From TrEMBL, chain A:
SUPFAM superfamilies: ALDH-like (SSF53720). GO terms for molecular function: aldehyde dehydrogenase [NAD(P)+] activity. InterPro entries: Ald_DH/histidinol_DH, Ald_DH_C, Ald_DH_CS_CYS, Ald_DH_CS_GLU, Ald_DH_N, Aldehyde_DH_dom. The active site is at E273. Homotetramer. It catalyses: octanal + NADP(+) + H2O = octanoate + NADPH + 2 H(+). It comes from Leersia perrieri. This is Aldehyde dehydrogenase 1.
TrEMBL record, chain B:
CDD domains: ALDH_F1-2_Ald2-like. InterPro entries: Ald_DH/histidinol_DH (IPR016161), Ald_DH_C (IPR016163), Ald_DH_CS_CYS (IPR016160), Ald_DH_CS_GLU (IPR029510), Ald_DH_N (IPR016162), Aldehyde_DH_dom (IPR015590). It comes from Leersia perrieri. Homotetramer. Pfam families: Aldedh (PF00171). Belongs to the aldehyde dehydrogenase family. It catalyses: octanal + NADP(+) + H2O = octanoate + NADPH + 2 H(+). Residues 1-12 have a biased composition (Basic and acidic residues). Residues 1-22 are annotated as: Disordered. This is Aldehyde dehydrogenase 1. Residues 39-500 form the Aldehyde dehydrogenase domain.
Length: 506, 510
């Protein structure tokens, strides 16, 4: 696991010549300043390549969240951000996008060291996607339209779409940068002010973005970042009496907690983007090599730490044998190593907890009687690396087929007919995504309409776009990210009705 | 500067620079811009563009005719059918359009100066308004390019239906001389966002900024052939565009008269789509309860801004009888402070009319008004010894059927009339073949709402005037034209809607 250290500022650390980037921001960002936590406490964030501590970060708790919400509320009620024209907000957001692009290498390195994400992909996927997301919403800010209404009586009616107020954003550790901008960009466009709690596993890039936001001219108090833990800082946000909307991406388990807290406190608006157990359905007429490529990507990309991972792969019986052989080989060739090494396909799991959890599921799979095709073990003597793992002879009711593993573990199953595939695909409490591989138009249309998932990918996977709404059905959550509809989470609709007496026209 | 009667001071004798610290722009681009290069006209001909402060020639510009339009269309067609522009993602086009805006911003001073020089517009205004508007338009549509949506349809049978909105193809854009750069971008920005390619014919009176903007477009990374600029005259270059068999849509801003010609030519040739933003005789209606100072300010701005060379000029001012006398007194007083002079002098409110033809035309209408029996409250004469300056003119005792009350004068001439009731105001406001804009000045909500709904115009301004914005759809009714500029609706002119329908067999869900 050597590494190439072409990242300038970093220092070589650890035994293997690891590059560790310089870490500039480790305090809470509240009202435009970096400050210590009220309690003075800090917590560690670790490098999953080694398990070593990267740095200590200020640990926010309720008192800090209170300060952040206060700053956000002030910025909303009396600051300029919500009152600026959408066009002007868009200009500031575009500047932030410029700054993200200028610092892309440094930011990609931060996520690499903090989350174990591939440096090369960070530079060519995560950072550009984040900038594109910002620019999309920068251009949306002046296109937030209500409607004039044909009201039945002698009235004039129209709707105004107003920013909802102070937004709480709680995001996960798997795509620290993408997740930050996924929530923050539409909230900014809408004119809201924000308190972000990044995941405790990956607080570093969020703090850097706070710094860049200030440089871009986003006023103090509009974006606040409070790194800390779920049960303390996260809970403080979801139960805060002065937060108007909370947007969360993470596990279904935490999603429940957040929704309950929202209900118990001030009935704040809630949007949840939760887990998944997404089916990849491969038909006999599929191009087998494409199908293998897509399904490999669908479960091993980002070390399986992705909500839309295609973790259940259904292959029609006609091509099943050929598929298994090729998929096993592809998994064996999927290189596990230091994410700063350009040759690596997959870095370590994000931390010890996840690492142990995935290994536990693998053991359960073996105990339940699934057949291990490849992988199934940790790898390397340091850090949290796991071999890409494929199980076959998986039954629908097995734990590994029902529960989200969030690691590089594929469950492979065979099917006969389209109807069977549809039924099995839907046999889950989740409904986030689905993949279909086929050349048949009819099958594509039929299955895409029948699968209960928020995104259906046909002959592709992970095909995200800032303009395409994304979100779940069933216990994968509700509310959408991306697209113009994402802004709805951060808007209130107000109807204004005026009497128009005696007009010749209405 | 010499002071004339009525307090209107004329500048311009001291040619070239007035009292301002403004640098005269260097004229760098005077050839046609086709397929990414500046080229002479096929015929080698050139024409002159003149400085309206003096009538002197500023520069000789290549004169495009049918042959040049053919070359431009050929380049645009190639760029559309085989080039990358229409096939790029909206997001990528948006980035390039943003870059274009950045370049325009970097060259703001030069652009503002070109506009002022070529069109006689006050330089303080062109720097803030014309350049500002141009930037806003480009950035608005840069952000729109990746948000062009069709719909999926709930069809009544077992069908999967959706619409695609596709770029229409090659657009012909014929733009006028009153706001040359603003007009350029009002058409070019949405056309670029939609993924179309285009041939722009700027007005012969004001060709300079369009050529400069073509140069900046290339620097911004807009591929060759996407934007082509053919300078020249209406009956030659303009006609070649509107009757071209390989242009898919022509969008025009200008006079109703020329709009007709364009539409006829489009019909006779290939039935290309047409969008026309034409003239107006817009009413400004001031009620008894209006804030009087505000009303006077709006009437002045609405008539004399940009020397009255604005399609939306509120040239028919109706004042309710209760405040009429006070209004007349106040506006006559206010006009004493209105300065006519060299547009490069920052103190000036009104520059010269754009050229000799317009100048003589406006003076003819003024004489017409006097002959018809209207009373000159202020102005009524040319101003200064050189160039095309006219005193801001207000007529009173105007009858609705007078020529000056019916025809678009396109100069600094206001018709001031009295009215009694709201119903009368509505009837008289609508008594015109035009329908571009209208202004209503009142504090009463019911009056505002009723007037807004009853006037047949494309935009109604309540307690404001010229309140335009890149996000607000703008365009006329009746003989003021059809089609919208600004707002997401502006894209429609440049998009084709295609429905795609597939049967969905035996599916449990539709």
């Amino acid at each position: 696991m050597g590494s190439t250290g072409e990242f300038g500022n970093g220092k070589a650390g650890g035994g293997g010549g690891l590059v560790v980037p310089e870490i500039k921001f480790t305090k809470l960002f509240i009202n435009g300043e970096f400050v210590d936590a009220v309690s003075g406490k800090t917590f560690e964030t670790r490098d999953p390549r080694t398990g070593d501590v990267l740095v200590h970060v200020a640990e926010a708790d309720k008192a800090d969240v209170d300060l952040a919400v206060k700053a956000a509320r002030e910025a909303f009620e009396h600051g300029k951000w919500p009152r600026m024209s959408g066009y002007e907000r868009g200009r500031a957001m575009n500047k932030l996008a410029d700054l993200v692009e200028q610092h892309a290498d440094e930011l990609a390195a931060l996520d690499g060291a903090d989350a174990g994400k591939l440096l090369s992909l960070g530079k060519i996927i995560d950072m550009p996607a984040a900038a594109q997301m910002l620019r999309y919403y920068a251009g949306a800010a002046d296109k937030i339209h209500g409607e004039s209404l044909r009201v039945a009586g002698k009235y004039q009616g129209y709707t105004l779409k107003e920013p909802i107020g102070v937004v709480g954003v709680i995001i996960p550790w798997n795509f620290p940068t993408m997740m930050f901008f996924l929530k923050v960009s539409p909230a900014l466009a809408a004119g809201c002010t924000i308190v972000v709690k990044p995941a405790e596993q990956t607080p570093l890039s969020a703090l850097y973005y706070a710094h860049l936001a200030k440089l871009a001219g986003i006023p103090d108090g509009v974006i606040n970042v409070v790194p800390g833990f779920g049960p303390t800082a996260g809970a403080a946000i979801s139960s805060h009496m002065d937060v108007d909307s909370v947007a969360f991406t993470g596990s279904a388990e935490i999603g429940r907690t957040i929704m309950e807290a929202a209900a118990r406190s001030n009935l704040k608006m809630v949007s949840l983007e939760l887990g998944g157990k997404s089916p990849m359905i491969i038909f006999d007429d599929a191009d087998v090599d494409m199908a293998v490529h897509l399904s490999t990507l669908a479960i091993f990309f980002n070390k399986g730490e992705i909500c839309v991972a295609g973790s259940r792969v259904y292959v029609q019986e006609g091509i099943y044998d050929e598929f298994v052989k090729k998929a096993a080989e592809a998994a064996k060739n999927w290189k596990v190593g230091d994410p700063f090494d350009a040759a690596t396909n997959m870095g370590p799991q994000v931390d010890k907890v996840q690492f142990e959890r995935v290994l536990k599921y693998i053991e359960i799979g073996k105990n339940e009687g699934a057949t291990l095709v490849t992988g199934g073990k940790p790898t390397g003597d340091k850090g949290y690396y796991i071999e890409p793992t494929i199980f076959e002879d998986v039954k629908e009711d097995m734990t590994i087929a029902q529960e989200e593993i969030f690691g590089p573990v594929m469950s492979l199953m065979k099917f006969k007919t389209v109807e069977e595939a549809i039924e099995k695909a839907n046999c889950t409490k989740y409904g986030l995504a689905a993949g279909i591989v086929t050349k048949s138009l009819d099958i594509a249309n039929k299955v895409s309409r029948s699968v209960k998932a928020g995104t259906v990918w046909v002959n592709c996977y992970f095909a995200f776009d800032p303009d395409a709404p994304f979100g779940g059905y069933k216990m994968s959550g509700f509310g959408r990210d991306q697209g113009m509809v994402a802004i709805d989470k951060y808007l209130q609709v107000k109807s204004v009705i005026t009497a128009v007496p005696d007009s010749p026209w209405y | 500067m010499a002071t004339e009667s009525n307090g209107h001071r004329a500048g311009g004798e001291e040619n070239g620079g007035g009292g301002g610290s403004f640098k005269m722009p260097e004229i760098r681009y005077t050839k046609l811009f086709i397929n990414g290069r500046f080229v002479d006209a096929v015929s080698g001909k050139t024409f002159e563009t003149r400085d309206p402060r003096t009538g002197d020639v500023i520069a000789s510009v290549a004169e495009g005719d049918k042959d040049d339009v053919d070359l431009a269309v050929k380049a645009a067609r190639e760029a559309f059918d085989h080039g990358k522009w229409p096939r790029m993602s909206g997001s990528e086009r948006g980035k390039i359009i943003s870059k274009y805006a950045d370049l325009v911003e970097q060259h703001a001073e030069e652009l503002a100066a070109l506009e002022s020089l070529d069109a006689g517009k006050p330089v303080g205004v062109t720097r803030v308004v014309d350049v500002g508007n141009s930037l806003h338009s480009l950035r608005y549509f840069a952000g729109a390019a990746d948000k062009i949506h069709g719909e999926t349809l709930r069809m009544s049978r077992q069908m999967h239906g959706y619409t695609l909105r596709e770029p229409l193809g090659v657009a012909g854009l014929i733009v006028p001389w009153n706001f040359p750069a603003v007009m350029f971008f009002s058409k070019v920005s949405p056309a670029l966002a939609a993924g179309c390619t285009m041939v722009v014919k700027p007005a012969e009176q004001t060709p300079l900024s369009a050529l400069f903007l073509a140069h900046l477009a290339k620097q911004a990374g807009i591929p060759d052939g996407v934007i082509n600029v053919v300078t020249g005259f209406g009956p030659t270059a303009g006609a070649a565009i509107s009757s071209h068999m390989d242009i898919d849509v022509v969008a025009f801003t200008g006079s109703t008269e020329v709009g007709r010609l364009i539409m006829e030519a489009a019909a006779k040739s290939n039935l290309k789509q047409v969008a026309l933003e034409l003239g107006g005789k817009s009413p400004l209606i001031i009620f008894d309860d209006a804030d009087l100072d505000k009303a006077v300010e709006l009437a002045i701005g609405g008539n004399f801004f940009n020397k009255g060379e604005a399609c939306v000029a509120g040239s028919r001012v109706f004042v309710q009888e209760g405040i009429y006398d006070r209004f007349e007194q106040k506006i006559a007083d206010a006009m004493k402070n209105w300065v006519v002079g060299d547009p490069f002098d920052p103190r000036v409110n009104q520059g010269p009319q754009v050229d000799k033809v317009q100048y003589e035309r406006v003076l003819r209408y003024i004489e017409q008004g006097k002959t018809e029996g209207a009373t000159v409250l202020t102005g009524g004469k040319p101003c200064g010894k050189k160039g095309y300056y006219i005193e801001p003119t207000i007529f009173t005792n105007v009858k609705d059927d007078m020529i000056i009350a019916k025809e678009e004068i396109f100069g600094p001439v206001m018709c001031l009339m009295k009215f009694k009731t709201m119903e009368e105001a509505i009837a008289r406001a609508n008594d015109t073949r035009y329908g571009l804009a209208a202004g209503v000045v009142t504090r009463d909500m019911d009056v505002a709402n009723t007037m807004a709904r009853s006037i047949r115009a494309g935009v109604v301004w309540v307690n404001c005037y010229f309140a335009m914005d890149s996000s607000c759809p703008f365009g006329g009714r009746k003989m003021s034209g059809f089609g919208k500029d600004d707002g997401m609706h502006a894209l429609d002119k440049f998009l084709a809607v295609k429905a795609v329908v597939t049967p969905v067999h035996a599916s449990p869900w539709f």
